[in-house]
Each structure stands twice: as C-alpha cells, then as structure tokens.
C-alpha cells in the first residue's frame, strides 16, 4: 500500500488581476476530491486571498472568495497564513474570512481552518511536504 503524499499549495499573489489565485483554488479542490492530504499556505500578497469582504469590481474577475467557505466540506482544513506577511500588509487574523471545518474525530466540533504561523514555522511546514505547488 502506498503512503499518502502531502501536497501544499503555496499562494503568493493577490486574489485578482491574475488567474493564479483562482487556479490554485480549483486545483486544491480537485486534489481534495481525490483524497490527497492537502494544505494551503498564504505568503506575501497571497494573504489578501483570505481577506473578508473582498471587492473584485475593479477587476474583470468575479469575486470567487465564497468558494473558500467550501474547503471544509472537501476535508481541506489546514490553511497556514504567514504572520509576517499579515503584519507587513497591516492585516490581522480578525480581518480574514472565518473559515472552519467539522472535526469528525471530535464529535464533529466546528474548528478554525486558518492557522497563523511564523516565517520559520512556515519553512518547516513546507519542508515536511512531499509536493509543493507554487501559485
């Protein structure tokens, strides 16, 4: 029996103006549908992807941020946000979307999906992955 591989999707770009953020989200959902061990990292301008109350009216793209709410339904519950990237952009955890999942090992308790980690912790998490996808 083969070992389940760990896949981390690293999001470094703002949500609108390019296709990277939307394509990352689509690939994550596909991977999760195939029972991959999926996690997401948000670094640099990628932290804006999780900001609440997004307005995409200045771009030619539809606001796709509500899709993040479905991640828990796909068993995607590990969203790592780099603390220094938040601070450098003047953002706080409270300004991000409240993303949760239901923990089946804890009587389906609702838990936060977003974990704020330091730059060093993020590097360690990346090092533990089998595959990194950069967007």
Descriptive account of the structure:
The protein has 135 residues and is an alpha/beta fold. It has one domain (6-134): 3-Layer(aba) Sandwich (Hypothetical Protein Ychn, Chain: A), CATH 3.40.1260. It contains three helices and seven strands. The chain has helices at 20-33, 83-88, 119-127; strands spanning 6-11, 37-42, 79-82, 100-103, 109-112, 114-117, 131-134. Strands 6-3-2-1-7 form a five-stranded parallel beta sheet. Helix 1 links the parallel strand 1 and strand 2. The chain is globular, with a radius of gyration of 14 Å. The termini are far apart. 26% of the residues are buried. The mean pLDDT is 93.
Strand content: 15-25%
**Residue ranges: pLDDT <50 for 5 or more in a row?**
none
Please work out how many helical segments DSSP would assign: 3
Spatial strand order of the main sheet: 6-3-2-1-7
The chain-level structural class is alpha/beta
Care to give the gist of this entry?
Helix content is 21%, strand content 24%. By secondary structure, it is of the alpha/beta class. A five-stranded parallel β-sheet has the order 6-3-2-1-7. A two-stranded antiparallel ribbon has the order 4-5.
Give the arrangement of secondary structure elements:
Blueprint: E1 6-11, H1 20-33, E2 37-42, E3 79-82, H2 83-88, E4 100-103, E5 109-112, E6 114-117, H3 119-127, E7 131-134
Parallel strand pairs: 1-2, 1-7, 2-3, 3-6
Antiparallel strand pairs: 4-5
């Amino acid at each position: 029996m083969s070992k389940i591989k760990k896949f981390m999707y690293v999001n470094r770009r703002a949500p609108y103006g390019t296709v990277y953020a939307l394509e990352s989200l689509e690939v994550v959902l596909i991977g999760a549908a195939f029972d991959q061990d999926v996690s997401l990292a948000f670094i640099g301008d990628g932290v804006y992807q999780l900001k609440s109350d997004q307005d995409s009216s200045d771009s030619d793209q539809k606001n796709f941020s509500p899709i993040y709410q479905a991640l828990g339904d796909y068993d995607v519950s590990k969203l790592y946000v780099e603390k220094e990237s938040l601070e450098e952009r003047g953002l706080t955890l409270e300004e991000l979307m409240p993303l949760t999942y239901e923990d089946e090992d804890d009587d389906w308790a609702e838990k936060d999906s977003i974990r704020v980690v330091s730059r060093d912790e993020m590097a360690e998490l990346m090092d533990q992955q089998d595959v990194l996808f950069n967007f």
